């Protein structure tokens, strides 16, 4: 044990002899507590490699209380869990600083094309088509279902709405099982009334 080299070794644990010191690897000065800098362009700056059969994380980042806020498992599964919910839990920006992707854990929202989503899913685009859904399977490409009527039921609120008025009334909706119509009706709704109804039964 000793501190002349700037390090202290005790019981298999090596630490800085002066706790206020910083560590630099590949550099003679450090801009952080630990600063790693490549010395050649072809050298990987940092590598974390697990052991065969490893069960502990490859990397864990914790808050001041020791709560894990970020981790990577041996298989690459990644966890991001803020210790305090925030509207900016995760943000991805483009080179100009524009919002590409954002996660709001305070309101359980995700934004695509924005880092400030206003709904559970907010998709914003200023250049053209907002979204394209394409499937090579025989099943539906997009399906929106109210969870309490999956497998049957009767409710005129199970629908996809195209636009709303200021008071929230649907301008046009496409839904199934409209009121007492029964079956699996296909209906266009406006102002709460069926304007075009195709009945599953006569």
Task: Name its key features.
202 residues, mainly beta, four-stranded mixed β-sheet, four-stranded antiparallel β-sheet, 15 strands
Walk me through this protein's architecture.
0% of the residues lie in helices and 33% in strands. It has no helices and 15 strands. The chain has strands at 7-10, 13-16, 23-25, 34-36, 59-62, 68-72, 78-80, 90-93, 99-104, 109-112, 121-123, 159-164, 170-175, 186-190, 193-198. It has a four-stranded mixed β-sheet, with no helix packed on it. Strands 12-13-14-15 form a four-stranded antiparallel β-sheet, with no helix packed on it. Strands 5-6-7 form a three-stranded antiparallel β-sheet, with no helix packed on it. A hairpin with a 5-residue loop joins strand 6 and strand 7.
| Largest sheet, spatial ordering of strands | 8-9-10-11
Alpha carbon gyration radius: 28 Å
Got a strand count? 15
Low-confidence stretches: 149-156
Strand content: 25-35%
Biggest sheet layout: 4 strands, mixed
Specify the overall morphology: elongated
**Number of helical stretches of at least 4 residues:** 0
Helices and strands: which structural class? mainly beta
User: SSE order, as H and E?
Assistant: EEEEEEEEEEEEEEE
In round numbers, the mean pLDDT is 80
What share of residues is helical?
under 10%
Ends distance: 91 Å
Question: Topology of this structure?
Answer:
Elements: E1 7-10, E2 13-16, E3 23-25, E4 34-36, E5 59-62, E6 68-72, E7 78-80, E8 90-93, E9 99-104, E10 109-112, E11 121-123, E12 159-164, E13 170-175, E14 186-190, E15 193-198
Parallel strand pairs: 3-4, 10-11
Antiparallel strand pairs: 1-2, 5-6, 6-7, 8-9, 9-10, 12-13, 13-14, 14-15
